[in-house]
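Morning. Coffee machine broken again, so started the prediction first thing and wrote up yesterday's gels while waiting. Chain of 1004 residues, entered below exactly as on the submission form.
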Amino acid sequence: MADWEKQALTPKEIIHHKFGAKASYRIEEVHASSSQDDCPNELAIPQKVPCLYRCHLQLPEFSVVSNVFKKKKDAEQSAAELALEKLGIHLQDNDNITVEEAWDDIVERIKYIFSDEFLSADHPLGSHLRATLQMDGERFGSLPVSVISTFDTKIINLCKAINPSVDSDPILAMSYVMKAAAKLPNYIVISPHVASLRRKNPYPPAIVKGLATPAESITFKAVYIRCTTGGGEVVEPVTLDISPDQYYLDVIAKKLGLKDGGLVMISRMIGKAECRVYSAIPKFKSSDNSWKAHGKRPVAESSHLEKTQNGKASLVCGLDIHSDAVVASVGYTSSHDLEHNDVTLKSFYRIWTGVSPNGIYKLSREALVTAHLPFSFTAKSTWRGPLPREILSMFCRQQQLAEPVFTISTTPVRPLSEILRSFKKLQDSESDETNNQYVSRGNENSGWDDNNSMSWEDEDSGSDDMYDQYTSWKDENSGLENTKKQYRKDKDSGWDDSDDQYMSWREEDSRSEDTNKQYRSSGKENVPVSGTRTETGYRCEVKVLSKSHDLVLECSPGCFYEKESYAIQNASLKALSWFSCFFDDLDADPEQPRYTNEDLNWLFRRSIMIKGTRRHEHPLCKPRTVDMLRKPKRVQTIANGSLVTICYSVSVEVDADFSRNGKCLKGLIESNKEIEFEVGNGSMNPHLESVVTQMSVGQYACFVTNLPAEGLVLAAATDTVRTRSLLSELSKGLEYSVQLLGVKGPTEKRMEADYFKPPLSKQRVEFAVKRIQESSASTLVDFGCGSGSLLESLLDFPTSLHTIFGVDISQKRLARAAKMLHAKVNKGACNLKSITLYDGSILEFDYRLHDIDIGTCLEVIEHMEEDEAFQFGKTVLSLFLPKLLIVSTPNYEYNTLLHKSGAAYQPRDKTESQLPKFRNHDHKFEWTRAQFSQWASKLAKRYNYSVEFTGVGGSGNMDPGCASQIAVFKRQSFSEVNVGKKVAGGAMHPYKAIWEWQKANGNK
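Came back before lunch.
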């Protein structure tokens, strides 16, 4: 075998040709450990770990073992490559090859392609050559240059070594092949009329005769995209017939009005249907032969002046096409067969739709008409479809761009609670001064209205001044007026506007812009005030580059996030949103910025236009106006953040008055028996979401909207031919029929984050920490510690505590708490002497925790049955005997506000279905203030404790009270209690200590 053929093959193929069946591959599965770093083995969090593979390659004289890979084929290729190194066979690396070497190699490769040996090779080019040997005259054995530059991987890689731009420029690759062939004047003949090459000396007749094989006629469907004089395109289905004595490129050329297949330009493979776009090669200027000497791309004649750009063809293949085009799935395989698949109108429009990020998301959800790429990422648990980072990677690969590059930066920032507390104090102070100032002015002036107006304006001004202390605008000279406008916008904007600002750090689902403002600056980070507690925020910058490393897009959101993964996903979504806008509205000025003055916290910069356009397609007609009775505006009853499940169908309908046959016509476009989406993040058609959020479970609704772009309808249509016929009629639009199957309310954390800044969970922890700091306690037990949020906070504040315990029944949550605490205590100074985590039920008594100073139980009892909540209170107050016990639980009366039902109270005659829902599906009960007071007061009286009622989130002095109600029990008697007599049997140490840390000995 020739050296060139060896270098064109993969390592595994070379091993096969050299050793055949004597080479034996064995794949070994390698299971990576799922244990968390620096965390005890018994606390390893269960995780799904992908299986890895290692390959053992046995050859007659030796064996090799590959490294570990995610894919079996990569492991096999690695083992084969190691074997080749032992054999002294070195594969050529195009990344290290010089331009001169690449040119020489292309020349040698072309010579090899036209050799007798290659004619029988298992290579697609060999099949093309055999087909051309069945022709007559000058075309006998003439191989189109477009075929060589498209199907020979070796030449493609060598051309990339000369100029990476050939990856998206087939004309440039063809010019390189032509230049290299010109260096073989005694071996290769270049056609003077078409871009084809043939061997100067004919092939031996015996070889040609032996290649003749019987073939059959084939018929397949394709799509013909015809340019019109008006600047648009007409997409038509066509059927192509190829007889045994025909070259398939000649058949396509005939459809395009070209002389033969040598004039056909071939695109890269597109779509899952593995089809290509075939169009006319731009003609070369006959007077310009400089490319032959310098290898530069030939200049195309001004054919684009005769025909406008073929927008649809250009868009789907990424090339600049100014002629008619055929989209077909046909081509030779390495086994010499001519394979083909049908390309229908539906499959073409699905490819057309999937070019943009929005289209990728639509296709992934199989909801082309109804789904939309969301404008915000709230949490992985509520996101449906591929994640933003995955979509961005798919888009880059589809557009032949480099993989996106993510850069993570962190910075210490002041907690949001401190920012807002400072803001509120200053705002209240300035408001008081303002009121005093303008009350006196109002008495002097002549009217309440004037005084009220002046007071309101000055209050705004004071607020804006305060905000300006925490906000550094990029344009520092814009003046106070800009700050006023932004602050009023933040106060008055609804969820639609605030969601678009994207989440702020420390709150997964926050729609507040307040946090973002503290990070907007003129190129530098905000530095925390000395002496205040700081936390880490993550920010992500994403860059999209071409294969030649030119900048395509740079997206630099200014928001900080609590988790690194959230920063990456939101940065990806920002980039996707920009690309979607670019593809869906290409008639806009390409240099027009994609952001407004209100969005100064992020910046896009684009350097390269992606080829292809998608003209805005208007419906064929405007929908007929239907007179409807005016009804009162309905109110949204399903809260943002809820997961909604619906069943729907979408049809195109033509009234009998407007149809050609006088009958009402209707065709199904899209249907889905069950689809789930999150309310409020833009993942669903806004018309559909608006209707669904006003419905109750089990209800049906039907409504009509305008027609979207014709291509989108045809991509989704069940029957494309019938749908196209209906669209040619005077359609009134799309008719939606939808049923609401189910609603999962937003998570407790999501609801609380929407209403409270800082989040309610953080306020509860801060309340407990403050009470602990005020006491002289040395020991503490957190009953139901979960993932350890309170225990973690105790490490950040100076207290008198020296021993703390956490008790929980969930080993998974305890594992997370252990991992977090282990990392934190080993990082820096800790005032505590010991920390212990126990696996056990808080309904059981463990003597080791008897007579503690402080007990806490934050948002735990509602996860039990009510009788178990009474049992917990009895066990803690009669056996554990804490000097102070802090218990919090949700206030059921506050749920109406969290669920946005619009009513603060629920009358007694309300049915059960009309009452507010629990905040978490795992809650067994939620008490009103009266019920909680009765529970706590009864326990306190029975076990000699006093009890104080308070809360966080809202005001306890007015209805409906605080969102989280808190009871603080204080022990009245400190006499010795014989606990042993109270415990009726059973072990005194039922808890299992699964993680312990001591300052003297370190981690145990």
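Residues 416-444 form the longest helix (29 residues). Going to sketch it on the whiteboard this afternoon.
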